[in-house]
Amino acid sequence: MRKVCSKNVLDEVEFSLAFISLYVSFGLIGKLKRNENITKVNDIVVYILIFSISLWAGSSVSINELLSLVLYSVLGSVIIIVVTYEIGTIWKMRGNVKVDSRKTNQLQYKYGIPFLLGWIVGLIVKPDLAYSTIIDVELLALAVFLGYSTANSMTIKVIRGSLSKGGISLLIVIIGNLIAGVIFHFIGMGSLKLTEIIAMGSGWYTFTGPLVSTYYSPYYGSIAFLINFFREQLSYVILPFLLRIRYNPYSAIAVGGATSMDTTLPLYALLLGDDYVMTAVFSGVTLTVFIPIFLPLMLNLP
User: Fold this and answer.
1) How many Å apart are CA 288 and CA 219, to the nearest integer?
2) Domain carrying residue 243
3) In the predicted model, is pLDDT for residue 150 greater than 80?
4) Residue 239 domain flag
5) Which GO terms describe its cellular component (predicted)?
6) Which of 152, 171, 202, 268 has its CA 20 to 30 A from that of 291?
7) 225: which residues sit within 8 A by CB, 6+ positions away?
8) Which of 3-7, 44-48, 102-106, 197-201 has the lowest average pLDDT?
9) Is residue 105, in this structure, part of any structural domain at all?
10) In a domain, 4, yes or no
């Protein structure tokens, strides 16, 4: 497999500093003044980003690469879910779980449309654009709206209510990501640095995919997007099964990663009950705050 890097080291450092500065600055602004209309723009930026990375991928990836992309993505998502859950079973717990199968089968599709549309247009039209520059601009826009949108999520109440339990889930997420990244590397998915970045996305596909795409290639960006996308989606399918075999709320929350604060939160409310909702929120919010800071810094590692 190839590795295509669109930036030199200095460019990566400058971009990382710019992204982090915008994210933190607008996070502070969001703490001081809230405007829900502005937060809605974040979704629009995300849709555009997903379309851009898919367009780039579709215009530059061959059919053979497409097949390996799907294979690696599905396999990778299952690996990271199972590994993360098993790591969490170190913390022994007892309990039973009742699952509402109708509700756990409800999946989130709102990001699937721009993703598929970008691929289709890219494969058919093959537009020749300055994708790296375009996605750079979109990522910086994401830093602005993302910082503003997530500023109000972390409150004193959330921190105090779930610090200990959420801390355990966070530890499981980190260890599970690290081990999964090593496995990704050994099955030929890419360099160890690349696979660790993909795994450390922790389910945040709308950020990890474009970031990896910019610094490596649209092929790897698509893998990063899909592995983290399926991590969220397959949580609804696999977690009820894993909880039946070995019940552990900390493991279950860790599997959701950054999504435990929003898209997979209803799943935790159903599977674990209200006692663990705050824990899921704390874990997800903490990851949401630190992933946009941590992943750009990982890009600058040797």
Assistant:
1) 24
2) 9-298
3) no
4) yes
5) plasma membrane
6) 268
7) 50, 53, 115, 205, 206, 208, 209, 210, 212, 213
8) 3-7
9) yes
10) no
